Write the structure tokens for this entry.
Amino acid sequence: MSRANDEANQLDQLYKEIILEHYKSPHNKGTINNPDASVWDNNPLCGDEITITAKINKGVISDVRVDPKGCSISVASASMLTDTVKGQTVVEAKKWIKIIKDMMHSDLQVSDDELGDLESLKGVANFPVRIKCALLSWMTLLKLLENHKGGQ
Ligand code: ZN
């Protein structure tokens, strides 16, 4: 095995570990009482489900919680989503949704440093059947933000 291959495998292993960490204990798991916005959605292809609740105040997502059920990629992606958008403005969150969509089409516009743990989802782009798993929470968040009328 060449050295480059070896390094690629190590990186792959690291990504798997990051995904597994989030899957085992998703960040900001649960639901908010009296949320400003709430959306449920699913990915029937894989059986993934998610509920997202959020507090949105003057255009800022002051709190967001996810209740994801499904495969490791969908749950890990939802966990990373909360880390990414909590405390961000709605505008900023929408930018991130676009970044993740672009990432799944291998058209990444930001550096790995900016991605943080999200970098571990990059490899999903190579597995078209899993892209919907990775995107479920992000597309559900987009729906939530577009449904939400107040606080903008
Ligand atoms: Zn899935």
About this structure: The chain is about 50% helix and 20% strand.
